[in-house]
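Subject: two folds for Thursday's group meeting

Dear M.,

Sorry for the delay on this. The cluster queue was jammed most of the week, so I only got both jobs back this morning. I'm pasting them in the order they finished. Each block is the input sequence followed by the predicted structure tokens. Could you check whether the formatting survives your parser before we put anything on slides? The first protein is the one we discussed after the seminar.
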Amino acid sequence: MSKFIAPTIKNFVAWDYVVFAALFLISSGIGIFFAIKERKNATSKQFLVGGKQMTCGPVALSLTASFMSAVTVLGTPAEVYRYGASFILFFIAYTLVIIFTSELFLPVFYRSGITSTYEYLELRFNKAVRFAATLIYILQTILYTGVVVYAPALALNQVTGFNLWASVFATGIVCTFYCTLGGLKAVVWTDAFQLVVMVAGFLTVLIQGTVQNGGPSNIWENAMNGSRLDVFDFDVDPLRRHTFWTIAIGGTFTWLGIYGVNQSTIQRCISCKSEKQAKLALYLNLLGLWVILVCAVFSGLVMYAHFKNCDPWTAGFISAPDQLMPYFVMDIFSTMPGLPGLFVACAFSGTLSTVAASINALATVTFEDFVKDCLPNLSEKNSTWVSKGLCVVFGVLCTSMAVAASLLGGVVQASLSIHGMCGGPMLGLFTLGIVFPCANWKGAVGGLLTGITIAFWVAIGAFVYPAQPSKAHPLYLSTANCTLANNTEMISTLAPTLPPTRPQLADSWYSLSYLYYSAVGCLGCIIAGLLISFLTGPDKGEDVQPLLIRPVCNLFCFWSKKYKTLCWCGVQHDSPAIPESSENNLGEDGTKKTGTDEPFQNGINKETQSRLPGYNHYEKSYTNMSIDAESYF
């Protein structure tokens, strides 16, 4: 029982329900619109990747909305409120991630003409590696989506008294509905609408919160006095939860696993009509990530200025830090009906976009990697129905996983930990294939298992033996101005208890910052993969198709053709390997069909490039019409 008297916080009124219901109705309406519009082109390819004719604008908005989920809307302001504004340093990680994704991973995936990113693993290694990676991705995405569904349901429960699990299942049903009806196009355009709602929700909170708390200068002064602006902490200790290095380095590895090799991201990028459009979508998406990040961080600072003398979490008015933001919203908008509904719609917009993207991506990888392999002669009509059926199945699974998410603690750390445990080893696996021609399939499997083992070991250890508060550095929260209750209960004196015994690893290995889980898994996978490859006989460069390798050495050896060729490790990047036009120019064994065109050098000239199948002279980029090209910087 709290020893403070909680202030009266109003619940939803009619206008809040109207605004909130409008979000669900419009999202469902977009799904119905595309189901009707595309009914004559109802192929599995149209359903899963939008016919590969999307443009950069809606794809960029969709990418931003999908990965700036309710975890960001609710969790990031609470992180800033408790730990300070160092979260703003994620802008460095986001920038590096988008550069690596667009220049290293995307060209390989796009030019290979694949639908599932895991098709690449079969082309580069073999089918066993592809299946293993697909299963891990499915596990990762279902776990993550459970967290994303649970977070806004908790917020809605806090501010409206809605039944927690009723709102969880409502979210799952709406997402599954428009995903199943409209496919990827419905997902992308619904995401674009939901991003607008997210930004509108954040802006209303920022404006009203700033006005109520004395303006920007007063908020800045309070944040500075409360040590919330100590952003640049250059302590290299990897056990510290958030420092410049854990965010810049660990955050880059974590988000690169989310963006660079994640089916949900790559699927929308390869749905663009050209590689140029796909890259532009990623860079425009970066602007969106920055905007949402700044809004979330400043919301946390405004919230601190509002509660600086009476912290509702310490006082016991709320049960979890993730409820801080909805509690704050209901407080500042208590006399403004409709606006609390807009904020909850903002939180749910992030959830709907992320869950829909996850369901669509899960359906795609399952169909491409399992169904088509087991049923190769499936008709186009039946393929579309199977794809829609998979959307329903994964919608049910992701919604059900929200029950487990209620046990994982803070939504930000829980979601990024899941991505770190699974996304890091996956990032290492794709990096092995794309960057190291010598890696063989045995190294790939061994590296993946090693990375997964290491990442799960440290993450599960941290869950069982949480790090000491001295490593997390939570900042001081005051209850000085909270109203004390007239508590006449007897205060019992508890006998002192001994602290629980902790193993030696608990204060070292298990206390590693959660942002490094991905880096540990990725590097473990790469190092083990290379060692196993050399011990079992590395692949010969001349046997690896240039389309599957990204010659990063060209950036460092541009001044010498001799050293550049040496660093190719035998891969024939300058061989006569321009194939005849085809939908997918790689054979079943992963070898590439060769043509009779004359050889060309690294750094393709315009005349040669214009003759490449899949290269559109007017777009000045590779297109999805007939995708095949050598892989060059």
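Second protein, same layout:
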Amino acid sequence: MARGNVKVKKSTKKFAKSGAQDREIQYRKKEKQIKHDMMDAEKRRIAREEAEEKEAERKHMEDVSRLDEIDPEFKEYLDKNDPDFGEAMEDDLAETLAPGEEGDEEEAGNDLRQDLVEEWFESLVSTNSLRALKKCIAAFRAAATQGYLNVGESDREGPSVTSTELFSYIVSEATQHIPNSFNLILERKKGGKAPHKCENWEKVRLFVRSYATGVATLLASQGLPDDLATHVLKYTIPLVEHLYTHSGASRALLKGCLHHVVQTNDKVQLMAFLVVRDMATPGRLPPTFTDICMKGMYLTFVKNTRTFTFETHSTVSYVMNECVELFGVDLASAYQHVFFYTRQLAVYLRTALQSGAGEEAFRHVYNWQYINSLRLWAMTVAKYHDEKELLPLVYPLAQIACGVVELFPAPKTFPLHLIVLSVINYISRTTGTYIPITSYVLRILSSPEFQKNYKTGDGKPVDLMFMLRAKKGDIANVSYQSSVFNEALYLLQEHLAIHSHSVGFPEMVYPVVARLKKLSKEVHGPKWRQAVNTVLQRIKNNTQFILAKRKDVSFGPSNVEKVTAFEAKLKESGTPLAKAFAKEKERRDESRKMRLEALKGGARKTVDEYADDSDSEEDLADLAAAEDVDEESEEQEGEEMEESEEEQEAQPPQKKRRK
């Protein structure tokens, strides 16, 4: 009978396993079909836009051809004052340099000559005619299509550039003069009406699209020198407002700029971001393009945060700053993105917290992409918390952060706990919200690992900001334990210093004091015991300070206005714990700066410093003075999260059962 029961149990388990596999297959098929449908919809949209533009061009040419019958006087006026008006729309701009055109026998051939190109640009600057504009754009398109790395190839179809000097000349002259020519032809003054509302817009509409497509192609090419890329991006900003009616060219240009946002050169990064920010500014392009820019910027950030090491932290922090700055352009649109992606983080966390969750569900949370995304949204909400749009998202972010700490209680994940707790302290300090973390910090300090007598290690401090999990051998390392213990005490002091001006501080710290007194007798080592006693003394001094101040007041806790004024006055004057922590923070930051400078990388930016440099273009320029860093090779861990970011709706990851 017992054997029969065992067989039934095994068959049931086998059936359940088979059913789970079938559901996994069905889910992946459905996910693949959704991606396929989205790609088809995007292709149909692009094809529809191109067809509409071609139809508009055809109608324009029909109207021009019927001018003799409809309005002969206006046709005579055009022939006299602008003979190139109809001709400029007849042929594709890429065919301008083709041989066989009357009067252009010397232009025949596939190679562009320096003297001929210089003549075209001189004509464009002096006469500003449509014919000269057409030739200059055609030369620029030829150079952009060829690319810097392919300069000198003779087997190309169509016009080609034979030298890097000529390539640089064409690109620099075209980007500098062509956008200005558009404004001159439109007779548009600075600050005037939008280009697409000008009377002469139809004259330059196709030219704008062709030139913008060339710029996008050039920015997306490989091997473009940094100085040339900076020049192109600098003169692309005046072009943005001309792209209101060209959504396809706008998307291509945005993609090229996002490619340079994560480059190692600081000036290229800065100029690329300024173009993206200008495209996202409401009123410059259609309203929907603000959302497109924000989404593209965030996905670019996620793709480049798979690792967070000493070599990559400068790039990660720079792009994080840019994202925070971009979301401040339109807070109403920013709320939609912050809410959507914060909800996605919550979905991953909820799936991992469910009983029986597999290793795959944990990996969706246990990676740098998830942690850096949490940092980004914490910075965004904290920076704009004074605005009513983002303030309601403080509580969800705090809940997610606390859930991440609860997900991994093992000692090997203490570095992850400390990183997330620092994010919580940052939110609490900037928004003035009380988010209790003492239980999490005391759990780390009370770990049995700190009560054992380990003697391994070299005694040098370990930088915990670049690790999520300690290796098995590091747990028994006294250097690792000292770093974890000191960092936990530092975060506890920071949390208490943030609320040290509260009228209820003595009651708030009562359980903390009781646990620290017990901990001072349990920990091993005189240095740790001395550190705990130092924190206890600081808490005691601040408690006595608050009690002394409370004796002089004549109102009760129910009088909210007077309590708020009392706390504001104490915060402005400073409390003993806040002053002591400020000195502790200064010593800690200086020590870390010296340690990182010894590694020839400069000081690493903390969460506080991330938000300090994102207020203006001058601040971004100062931030761009950091040293160049090499991009690390992308790791496989966290790829599932990147794919799911590109979905239209957040879907919880499926559980992956172990064999």
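Two things I noticed about the second structure. Residues 344 and 650 are 6 Å apart (CA to CA). Confidence is low (pLDDT under 50) at residues 1-15, 86-109, 601-659.

Cheers,
T.
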